[in-house]
Every structure is written in C-alpha cells, then in structure tokens.
Write a structure and sequence with these properties.
Blueprint lengths: L1 E8 L5 E6 L2 H9 L12 E9 L2 H12 L3 H9 L1 H4 L1 H4 L3
Antiparallel strand pairs: 1-2, 1-3
C-alpha cells in the first residue's frame, strides 16, 4: 500500500502533506527529526491519511493536495475538528 498523509505541527499549527510506502516508519522518522522539512516543527500529530494500491495514484493525490487548490480546501473543511489542536490534544 501507498499512503498520503497530513501531519499537524503542535509548534506552529501548520500542516505538512506527504506520501510514503511505510506510514508507520515515516511517522517515526518525522517524530525523531530525521525529515528535514518537519524537523523544526515537532511535535507532530497525524490527523489524516489515505491508502492507495498504486504508487502513482498516491503521488498524484499528494501533488494535488500540495497545490492548495479546491481539493485541499475541501479536505481541510472536512477535517476542521481534527485540525483543531486543542481537540486533538484533549484540552
């Protein structure tokens, strides 16, 4: 399986969109600061992921979400409660 995922930074409240073949390992790498683009934004919370059988489908979805068009806007609206860090952290 291939995954597209969204992480939310507890530090700066921004989201990161990525894709991977091994979601569990990739999340570990993010949390350990081994991914350059999120290293300074830890801690991170996984708020969403999608699974695909074909890598090209996952990469295309990631690209579309990163373009910040209507697709990501609608997804963020759908995830509004999950993206509210106070709710995620149980405050």
């Amino acid at each position: 399986m291939f995954y597209v995922y969204i992480l939310k930074s507890s530090k700066d409240n921004k989201c990161y969109i990525g894709s991977t073949r091994d979601l569990k390992n990739r999340l570990r790498l993010h949390q350990e600061g081994k991914i350059y683009s999120t290293k300074s934004r830890r801690p991170l919370v996984l708020v969403y992921y999608e699974a695909y059988r074909v890598e090209q489908d996952a990469r295309l979805r990631e690209k579309n979400l990163k373009n910040y068009g209507q697709g990501v806007t609608n997804l963020y609206k759908r995830l509004s409660k999950s993206l509210d860090m106070r709710k995620v952290q149980g405050e």
